[in-house]
Amino acid sequence: MILVTGGAGFIGANFVLDWLAQCDEPIVNLDKLTYAGNLQTLASLKGDTRHVFVRGDIGDRELLARLLAEHRPRALINFAAESHIDRSIHGPGDFIHTNVVGTFNLLESVRGYWSALPAAEKTAFRFLHVSTDEVYGSLGTDDAPFSETHRYEPNSPYSASKAASDHLVRAWHHTYGLPVLTTNCSNNYGPYHFPEKLIPLVILNALAGKELPIYGDGMQVRDWLYVKDHCSAICRVLAAGRLGETYNVGGWNEKPNIEVVRTLCAILDELSPRADGASYATQISFVTDRPGHDRRYAIDARKLEQELGWKPAETFETGIRKTVEWYLANQPWVENVSSGAYRDWVGSSTAEP
Ligand code: NAD
What we know:
Distance between the termini: 19 Å
GO biological process, one term: nucleotide-sugar metabolic process
Largest sheet: 7 strands, parallel
Number of helices: 12
Cofactor: NAD(+)
Strand content: 15-25%
Bound molecules: nicotinamide-adenine-dinucleotide
Number of strands: 12
Keywords: Lyase, NAD
CATH topology: Rossmann fold
Pfam family, one: GDP_Man_Dehyd
Domain NAD(P)-binding: 3-323
CATH superfamily: NAD(P)-binding Rossmann-like Domain
């Protein structure tokens, strides 16, 4: 049994689905179901006894103590977070509440559980914290990609709150010996991505005939990884990562935002052409840049590749095509999220979906 937090969000839900497709080890999935949590993503697990969904907050120590005592997980993977930079600029409070205070409470709950485990279970236990490359700040054009020893220079309320959580996780290892692992991953894309993020937003706006908004000059560089490759990296680190270590996760796919958007338009032109024959690229519009927008992120993933033998299965070209195909083939999921109808699931969601 493993316990996953935030498993109704984009990456967490992909992880839960992939995990249960590959093995029979059950998952307890603790998620608060904020606007970003969507049980519809997990609808295929309805009736599957290997998946126990619990609605709750990572900061609720009483709930955590009960779940840990009841299910006795051998590992906890922490995906739960407030994750959208723009939201963190307009309302940083939730980011501090969940990413900093929530992670602190989660660590304390897990420490209590772990320290009381019998010796063999105590040695085997793992706490894997999922984090982001944004904690490292911004790179100049000619700078080397972020390695695990790059200094932390977070620039947004989101990245600062994630940096704080990484530091807490590190300290709980050094101070209390909690067996932790941390992953810092580049930008993910793929199925079930909430449409406030660049790639799903562009696909959905393009198909709806709306403008495709690009911040500033569109030359901000991000390093992209297909979400299922991130999930496989997490499995690899969980299985073989060295305690207390950090592993950067990335696919060596640096792309300026404008290139990502043009690629999406070209794939859509091919797979779902506009009725008037024009390219979706004609819908691109440049909008005022985000305040403090980091210019470039790039991940050096050699430690994970060389030490743990992980490799991504997708290139950017294959992953982005799969993603567009997924959005075209899954319109009911998309319409449900776009209309907000997925919120209707939440009322009755203290049990499994
Ligand atoms: P997401 O916003 O899609 O999902 C977050 C999930 O956490 C949601 O289901 C939400 O309901 C849940 N949640 C939020 N607050 C909670 C709380 N207090 N208690 C319990 N559950 C809570 O995020 P995501 O994109 O899936 O990211 C998952 C993790 O991966 C985050 O920690 C994020 O920082 C990290 N990460 C994301 C990316 C990316 O490109 N999306 C890249 C690298 C790292």
